[in-house]
Design a protein that fits this description.
Blueprint (H helix, E strand, L loop, with lengths): L10 H4 L6 H16 L5 H20 L5 H28 L5
Helix pairs in contact: 2-3, 3-4
Length: 99
């Protein structure tokens, strides 16, 4: 039939992909709130969350070299480093004083 979408052709353009970012954003927002409340358990989780994104971004960069994605990856590395530094400070602050 003329004008009918094919399975590989126009159908993919008619049906938008399922949104996955709201699910991921809700977890990131929850971690961010926990970090703002200085919850020690949230720091390693945030670092792991960022490491997963950095790994995926590096994987995507192997297919298509994109300046924007490279800049985002570098920014995520910087945020992970800052999170690690703050985690060390918080651990030192909450460590019991031994005299």
């Amino acid at each position: 039939m003329i004008g009918t979408p094919t399975a590989k052709g126009q159908l993919g353009q008619l049906i938008p992909p399922r949104p996955r970012s709201p699910w991921l954003n809700s977890y990131a927002a929850g971690l961010l709130v926990a970090l703002l409340k200085n919850r020690l358990w949230a720091y390693p989780w945030m670092i792991a969350f960022l490491a997963a994104f950095i790994g995926y971004q590096a994987y995507r960069l192997t297919f298509t070299l994109s300046f924007g994605l490279a800049a985002l990856t570098i920014f995520d590395l910087f945020i992970a480093w800052l999170t690690f530094r703050e985690y060390r400070k918080q651990l030192a602050r909450h460590a019991p004083a031994t005299n």
